[in-house]
Each structure stands twice: as C-alpha cells, then as structure tokens.
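Tokens for Transcription antitermination protein NusB. Go.
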Amino acid sequence: MAARTKARKRALDLLFEAESRGLNASTLLSQRVETPVTEHPLPDYTRELVEGVVAHWKDIDELLSTYSQGWSVERMPDVDRAILRIGTFEVLWSTDVPESVAIAEAKALATELSTDESPRFVHGLLARIAEVKPTLI
C-alpha cells in the first residue's frame, strides 16, 4: 500500500473515531501525535489531511449537503462522511494531489470499508464537486 494511501486511511480512522466518540478531531489528532497508539508515528500527510478537513469543516459539509441530492450529511453512513470530507478537502484545497487521484482514493476506501453502494455514491459526489470547483474557489 502506498504511503499516501496509508496516510489517508489513518486520517479516516482519526476522523471516524473523533466523530463516533464525540471528540474534537483536532484534539484527538494532537493526542495521537503526543501519545501514539501504534508503534508507527502518524504520517505528516495524515496530519495535513485532518488539519485541512477541520479547517474547512463547515464549507465541506455545506458542499456535501448541497451536491449530495437528497442526502443530508447526517444521513450518510459515518465512514462515508469521513471519506467524503477527506476527498472534498483533497479535491478543493490540496495543491499536490490531482483531483482524479483524490476521487479514486476515496472510492477505494469506500470499496474497502463501507457498503456496496458507497463507492458509486462517493465517486459521483466527489466528481460533481470537482466539476463545479471553478465556481467554488
């Protein structure tokens, strides 16, 4: 598994855990950096993703709600919501990840970790956000 793919998975784990436990994602990230729960420290890209998602949280959720066609953010499965937040951050604000890569990586995470319908949903929603990106930024 590529380093960035692993970093995305770790970011997903952190965002999912924070939301599931009702914790602030930034606080949980700081705790994991200070006191790792595995023998491997968090990759820099994991931190970059979590910090980026937190910094743009409101905008990301607004976009997901606007373009998800009938699905409120709260109604989405928790893991899909975390994947979509990471994917949206990468599509809109990452300067070194091509949109197509961000979308493919998000779809792969959904395929591995969520429902049978999730990969298609994640791909479609992120593709739509990428399509309207010029009007958003």
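The chain has seven helices and no strands.
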